[in-house]
# Entry
Amino acid sequence: MAKLQAIRGMNDILPGQSLTWQYLESCFHRVVQRYGYQEIRFPVLEQTQLFKRSIGEVTDIVEKEMYSFDDRNGDNLSMRPEGTAGCVRAADQHGLLYNQQQRLWYAGPMFRHERPQKGRYRQFHQFGVEAFGMAGPDIDVELLQLAAQLWQELDIAEFLTLEINNIGSAADRKAYGAELTAFLESRKENLDEDASKRMYSNPMRVLDSKNPQVQEALEGAPELAAFVSQESIEHYAMLRAMLTELGIAFRENARLVRGLDYYNNCVYEWTTDTLGAQGAVCGGGRYDGLVAQLGGKPTLAAGFAIGVERLVLMLDSLEKVPAEALHPVDIYVLSVGKVAPSLGLQVAAELRQKYPQLGIVSHCGGGKYNSQIKKAFNSGASLAVVLEAGQDGDNAAVDVKIRRLGDSDESRDVALTDLTTQIAEFL
Ligand code: HAM
# Structure
């Protein structure tokens, strides 16, 4: 019978790779904790309507990429394609937003039916950070500072560029959209089916068209910058000044629009050229209208999300994961010959108690010295403790040896009772 395979674009993360993930997760947890952000967890499944109303009906994510289905009750549900919508839904449903400030983070799998390639998957993972109830730009800068700190901790700051743009307020965008529709109507005959549809429902999405003919038709189109209000310009100017004062380098990119409809004012992406085509590692911005759009009270909001797989690829290819994070086993305990069956487990337990930060494996399953020591090497441990039975099979007569694995094969015979203290000299 043919073996079943994982779904295309959905990856298994195997033990070797999961060490990089754990390293990344612990760095992220440390940084968000230092900035006073608290974790929120919300379901992978939500009503499809939630994503339609937040990300936007006329976006690639909602039109083409969601995993949606009717459940057994006939409710139309979707696997979350991103975290902001669910985070807002959960925070508002539980009364965390009204008249309050919140700094929240989340992590977990997201689902988009995109064409898989390096750095782009159908199940992928995000670290997300969302801040509510603050007007900015101080909070916007704090969010960027937090991301920059993470890049520094991971030692990849030099490979990332921050791109920022001001896309104006919701009202500015509406005025611009009307003007753009009028312009597109005058070029109607040069638009494809997609653009002809979108020019009424979401004219700004026509700007993202990959069709060269549509791009040609866009020549001379009105520009958003001309519609951006004074207030929004000031917010953005202040944001840039603060970034400069804090030494966070950025590049302005007037073409940066983001693929989700809920943004206003400042938007940004951190990009890298170490990953090929999928160079966006982190994206976000303000979304002051979203809470009200989903039925809550008007609430100021801003946040970003990081693509975990893309960071993992970066860390691995740049060899930025510290060696100790890749070696979960420090000591391997061998039991050779007729050692009492529980002795290895007991010795390992004592070592764990004395050195709780170390990974200690007690060999199970018997076998000769040669095969056990091979497993000790393969485990990546730097030390082996060899328990070898003496003549009469009595624990008291067990020979105990501490052996260094790796370049040096230094070893020392010790008394069983001295093992936990003597081993300190090898650590
Ligand atoms: P996004 O730009 O759609 O924004 O996704 C954020 C990050 O997730 C991207 O920069 C990328 O690294 C990663 N990503 C997106 N799609 C894929 C994929 N198919 N495979 C692998 N990685 C992917 C959002 O999702 C917003 N919710 C961000 C946000 C939070 N805005 C405000 N708060």
